[in-house]
Amino acid sequence: MKKVITYGSFDLFHEGHYKLLQRAKALGDYLIVGVTTEHFDTMRGKLNLVDPIMTRIENVRATGFADEIIVEDHDGQKIEDIQKYGVDIFTVGSDWTGKFDYLNAYCKVVYLERTPDISSTIIREGRGSLIRIGIVGTGRVAPRFFEESSYVSGAEVVAAYNPDVDSAMEFNRIYQLPTYVENFDEFLGKVDAIYVASPNETHADYVRKGLESGKHVLCEKPMTFTFAESQELYNMAKSKGLKLMEGIRAAYLPAFQQIIATAKSGTIGRICNVEACFSRLPVVGSREQYDYKYSGAFLEYGSYGMLPIFKLLGVDYQSVEIESILGENGIDIYTEARFKYDGCLATAKAGDGVKSEGQLIIAGTEGYILVQSPWWLADSFEVRYEDPSRIERHKAEFQGGGFRYEISEFINKIRDPESVDYKLTAGESRAMAKVVEKFMEQRKQIQGE
Ligand code: C2G
């Protein structure tokens, strides 16, 4: 008797799962299906599971393909199961190609072609339905978004748009998206939500078009260059009952919210200074190096520095001074935005062509919080005091590249319209747009336009 084994979460059970199990069963005589526990899914970085394990098991059982159902709850279990049950074939969908080759030492490994277009056949009911996402802009971040979205249950990237048809087609080919359309309106017709990752100056227009056609929008920073436009877009989303979110990844990481809460809890006394730095040396020939109008240090990375400042001190600062060091064509290779609050000073530093230590320091009257570089990808932080031997170390790890937490938040918000914005509020996002607007005005003066 040929024994086959496969594993999965089988959340929001759909045709892709059904077909996988059907073909897995056809590979042999006896099929064992491992259904993951929520704990195991959290450990492996899979977020947003909707169905409880009993429902997921019941859905697998209902197909009639499984001869035996087991529960998967820890790393390394696959090797144990294969040996314990005398398994001949391990199989899983092609989205995992290569990842389970190590099991070849124990049995045959078969990757079955993933079912591409499941969106049309999904049972669209209530809270649990799958959110079809379209990516606008197929540049450098799009692949990372695509890969991390696969860890967010209920999120499915189904289409990608780029006016540069070659780039869009190439993205479609690599990631085997089910639909390809060249026309933007048609593209919008295929999705429930869009992720805007196009060049900075095109963000606002795509956001507006997305909202106009009733789509939820997650937009890369900076979403707009003016306060008024940011306000207009948030108002539009609100009036249409849609979710609009600015994608500043750091805001959604588990450690970041813990840092903010710890600082606000009074542990370090009254906060008197916040200093956040984000810097990198650009890739030669990249947009950041030559796009002196809509790129440069502040437009690319200024939002990161402003994030902890606004979260900790609010958006009602007394004044802000912005100063830059310029490179060729007047592009800023380094910019500092210095905020003055009542009883507190704060600085957001951004370097794109200047490299510094990417740390976040929150200074208080009784101690300080140090988040080591890169603070925007924090998985730990320290609370320190006058006595250098007294250090409280906190850990809050994240899985993968961190992107999935932002995607997870977006999906959660769409699923639960009553959910409260607190990780990055519309007010904080608008306040960032206001500073960006001031920066852009100064830039225009300097560049003589
Ligand atoms: N699948 C598919 N087509 C889809 C979606 C999923 O063929 N459109 C397959 C997956 O490749 C997997 C199975 O259905 O083989 C279950 O998918 P998930 O529930 O998403 O589980 P997954 O996270 O892939 O877990 O230990 C767990 C395993 O590693 C797989």
Describe it for me?
The model is unreliable at 119-127 (pLDDT under 50). This protein has 449 residues and is an alpha/beta fold. Strand 12 and strand 13 (332-341) form a beta hairpin. The chain has helices at residues 15-26, 38-43, 53-63, 77-85, 141-149, 165-175, 184-189, 203-212, 227-240, 254-264, 287-290, 297-313, 403-415, 426-447; strands at 3-8, 30-36, 68-72, 89-93, 108-112, 131-136, 155-161, 193-196, 216-220, 244-247, 271-280, 319-326, 332-341, 344-352, 360-364, 368-371, 380-384, 391-395. Strands 12-13-14-11-15-16-17-18 form an 8-stranded mixed β-sheet, covered by helices on one side. Strands 3-2-1-4-5 form a 5-stranded parallel β-sheet, with helices on both faces. Helix 5 crosses helix 13 (403-415), helix 8 (203-212) packs parallel to helix 9 (227-240) and helix 12 runs antiparallel to helix 14. The longest helix is centred in the last third of the chain and has 22 residues, at 426-447. The chain folds into 3 domains: 3-112, Rossmann fold; 131-247, NAD(P)-binding Rossmann-like Domain (Rossmann fold); 254-397 and 419-446, Dihydrodipicolinate Reductase, domain 2 (2-Layer Sandwich). The structure holds [cytidine-5'-phosphate] glycerylphosphoric acid ester. [cytidine-5'-phosphate] glycerylphosphoric acid ester is lined by residues 7-11, 16-17, 20, 36, 46, 72, 92-93, 95-96, 114-115, 118.
